[in-house]
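Quick one: structure for this chain?
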Amino acid sequence: MRWHKIYGLSLRHLYLIKSSFPRILDLIYWPSIQVFLWVFISKFFTMDSTYYSNTVGVILTAAILYDFLFRSSISYNMMFLEEIWSRNFTNLFIAPIKISEIITALTLTAIIRTSIGLIPAALIAIPLFGVSIFSLGLPLLLLLLSLYIFGVTLGLLVTSGLIRFGPSFENIAWASLFFLAPLGCIYYPIEIMPEWLQTTAKLLPLVHIFEEIRNIMINNSVNYFQIWKSISISSLYFVLGVIVFYLSYYGARVRGTLINIGE
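Got it. Here's what it folds into:
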C-alpha cells in the first residue's frame, strides 16, 4: 500500500466536508437531537422503573455510543455513495489505486466524520444533563474501538452489496444497523430475550459491548475479558467484511457491471 494515495483519497472526502456547511450540520445535528430525545425518554423511565438507579446516565450513554456505531457505518457508506452520486465511481477503480488503499482511506476518513458528530453530542450531555461518557474511563477507548471496527465492517458489507447489485442496494445502507439493533441489547439486558435468541445475540459484539457499559455504570466494575471478547468478534467480522468486499469487486469486474454503476 502507498500511503500518499491513501492520504489523497482521504483528503478528497475531507475537502467535501470542509467546503459544505450542510454536510457538517448533518454530522452534528442528528447525534445532538438523539441526546435530547433519549434524556426525556430516560427521565420518564426513571419515574416508573427501579431497575436502574441512574436511568438517564445508563440509557443516554448507550444512546451516544450506539449513535457512534451508526455514524461510523453510515460515514463509510456515505463516502462510497458520494463516489456514485458524483459519477466518480468508475474513475476510482480505473485510477492506479489498490482495493486495500481504498478500504484503508475510507476507514481512516470515517473516524473523522464520526468524531465530528460524537464529540459535540458527548459535550452537550455534560453541562445540560450531568451525563459524561468519559466517566467510563480507559475502557471507553476499547469500547469505541470495538464499535468502530464493527461499524466499518457493516459499511464494508453494504458497499459490497452496492458493487454487486448497484445503487438499488442503497436503501440497505440506511437500514443495516436497524436490522441488528433488537439483537444488540442496546437499551435493555440480554436476560429479557428468549434463551434461543440470546445464543444468536451473543454472536454479535454489540451484546458484549453494551452489557459491559451497563456493568461499569451500575456495578462500578470492569470486565476486560468481555471487552476484549467484543473486540475479537468485531475484528473477525471485519476480516470477513474485507473478504466479501474483494469477492464482490472481482465478481463485478468479471461480469463487467462496474462500468454501469453511477451511470
